Amino acid sequence: MTDVIQAPTKPSAARRMLRTIAHWPPAFWGLIAVLLLAAFTQPHFLSVPFLMILLRQAAPLGIVALGQTFTIANRSLDLSVGAVIMLVNILVSDRIFLGFPAVIPISVALLAGVAVGLINGLLITVLRASAVVVTLGTASVVTGIGYLISGGAPGNAMSDTIKYIGRGRIELFPVSGLFWIASAIIAWIILRKLVFGRFIMAAGDNPSAAHYSGIPVTRTLLVSHIMSGVFAALGGLILSGLIGVGSLGLGADYVLSSIAAVILGGAVFGGGAGGAVGTVLGTMLLIMILNLLTVFGIDEAGKLVVQGLVIAVAAIIYQKSAAR
User: Fold this and answer.
1) What is the residue-wise DSSP string for 218-260?
2) 4: alpha, beta or left, given left = phi > 0 and alpha = psi -120 to 50?
3) What is the extent of the structural domain holding 169?
4) Which one of 29, 42, 114, 246 is at 20 to 30 Å from 134 when CA atoms are compared?
């Protein structure tokens, strides 16, 4: 009797669809749930004017989170983004730039982000130090530099152009939202269409295998941190324009929030996963949740608890679904 060898059967269309849906980021389903909740409890949340307010509020965090996506997808982390935001705010509001074209303080702010990202990347790649330790140390140094520059008293000489970037509107649409959309498109192209993005995903998934495959793992990680610094500086620039004055406390809460947005977007630490679209959705979900909690009268402590629970549940669900 001869054995009959059966050809492997292809999964049905329904099963393929279920697998695809299982890999959608938690933020997608979270947004649907939050929008339904808002529709029944706070219908004004879905009005165009209020959505534009939320967009303006979310833009700085969204841009910073896009930068954080590069590092997390590459098995790293950037805890210095809050300090970069504070430094940018102090720089662009300093009286030293009075009378200069707005392009000067803007360029200085972006170069500061490049410098911080470059220092982080070099310390992590050359010394093979922990990203957590390095970026925490860098954050402390950058914060100290900010205090030295401001003398403990931030200035109030911000350019009208920078304020327009943070507060301006084109009809109802906020200018900051345009910067967020442009940043998201750039990040998506880099991560999904360029070779460098493939390097990031490969190095994040398995650095050793990527190295033996000829991928410049060290250089990829270095550039990822530079990208994070640039995006943090741009986010700080827009946030500074929105606030309109210098503040030593600006950006402190963006460290946890940017990481939260990336995780809600489907990224997994050390998993070589993550993307611009997921991070955008994660940012939108986070902003919606925080605003709904404010309307419901939840205090800051309660917001932190809810935010932590949302992140934990999202990470667990996504890892379980991705493992199937």
Assistant:
1) HHHHHHHHHHHHHHHHHHHHHHHHHH-S--TTTTTTHHHHHHH
2) beta
3) 44-323
4) 246
Name the CA dihedral angle for 286, 162, 249, 50, rounded to a multiple of 10 degrees: -30
Q: How far apart are CA 131 and CA 120, in angstroms?
A: 8
Angle at 268 between CA 262 and CA 269, to 5 degrees: 100
**pTM of the prediction?**
0.90
Q: How far apart are CA 58 and CA 104, in angstroms?
A: 26
**Sign of the four-CA dihedral 135, 140, 141, 142:** positive
Residue 283 in domain: yes
**Count: domains in the chain:** 1
- Phi, psi angles (nearest 5°) of residue 252: -60, -35
CATH number of the domain to which 170 belongs: 1.10.3470
Question: Is the torsion defined by CA of 59, 119, 114, 273 positive or negative?
Answer: negative
Confirm whether 19 is domain-assigned.
no
Does 241 fall in a domain? yes
pLDDT (tens digit per residue) in 92-136: 998 888 888 999 999 999 999 999 999 999 999 999 899 999 999
Distance separating alpha carbons of residues 254 and 222, to the nearest angstrom:
22
DSSP letters, 123-177, are: HHHHS---HHHHHHHHHHHHHHHHHHHHTTS------HHHHHHHH-EETTEEHHH
Give the pLDDT confidence of 61-87 residue by residue, as tens digits.
Answer: 999 999 999 999 998 999 999 999 999
Please tell me the distance from the alpha carbon of residue 10 to that of residue 15, in angstroms, as a whole number.
10
Give the H or E element holding residue 202: helix 195-205
In a domain, 183, yes or no: yes
